[in-house]
Design a protein that fits this description.
Layout: H1 2-23, H2 30-47, H3 49-56, E1 64-65, E2 68-69, E3 71-74, E4 79-82, H4 99-113, E5 117-124, E6 131-140, E7 145-152
Antiparallel strand pairs: 1-2, 3-4, 3-7, 5-6, 6-7
Helix pairs in contact: 2-3
Amino acid sequence: MKRFVSIVVAGLLLMMTSAAMAASDGKGTKAEAKALVEKAIAYVKAHGKEKAFVEFSNPKGPFVKGDLYIFAVGFNGVFLAHGADPSLIGKNQLQSKNENVRLVTIGLIETAQKGGGWYNYKWPNPKTHVMQRKSSFIKKVDDSVFIGCGVYY
């Protein structure tokens, strides 16, 4: 019986250690992505778009957590903020020569215009630079801009 208890305890410790390691690897969850979007929307309402977009684009700010980051895009396709790739800010991705970027931007806009929700696509992970599947939660701020945050998987 003592040996059985030792094995069970060892198994539980291994499971807890594995869960802790998974949680600390910087990979965000869908629930965390959605919560970050809600936090970002509240920040826009409290502080205005201009201040919010600066804060969203700060890689060390409160809107970047592990591999989660906020992005803001105008319905015209121009990226207004991006927590992981500042080179996208100010670029109209509807005019991108990269077909994937153009199609993703169209899909994000359509999702926002339909009331928001989850949109699945492929996008380069800014940490690994590898094209990965991604699911982003999108929410409309107003008639000119939407905010998103996604998880890589």
